[in-house]
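Progress report, Aim 2. The chain analyzed during this reporting quarter is listed below.
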Amino acid sequence: MTKQERINVIYKSNVKMALLQGLITFPMSFFTVGLIRSDSWNGWYVTGVFVCLLLLGGSFFKANRVEAKLTEREDAKIIIARRNGSLFTLFVIFILSFALTIKLGWMYAWILGVAVGVLYGGYRLIRKQDERLSDIDPEHPMLKEIRLDNVRD
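Predicted structure tokens for the chain:
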């Protein structure tokens, strides 16, 4: 499969997953705001956030499977799984650090500073994994190449 065909398949899959992730994110934001506004760690809100994170993780896993099927190289599949897992982990870190800072008070804003540092390090890690992936499988698109203006049908 050529690089262009892979970009088309991955982009179409990402559009479908974005709709699902958006539908999951709406109740997650409700549960997160409820958790922040409650006086205690309400079990329903915590459970709701946890279930939404599991569902989002499942959607990232499905997108990972679609992308990994496009290459035959096992080491490329491992890098794809690590990259997509890193993306999901960074998303969770951002959401939870923001919610935790608001819940505990702005006196704990250092949590956001640490989270921004972790996000930057994760971004650099993902870029490095993309470069390794392009070395292993030159026909596999990098994350920055999977956008609408590169889709050709």
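The radius of gyration is 18 Å. The mean pLDDT is 87. These observations will guide the mutagenesis work planned for the next reporting period.
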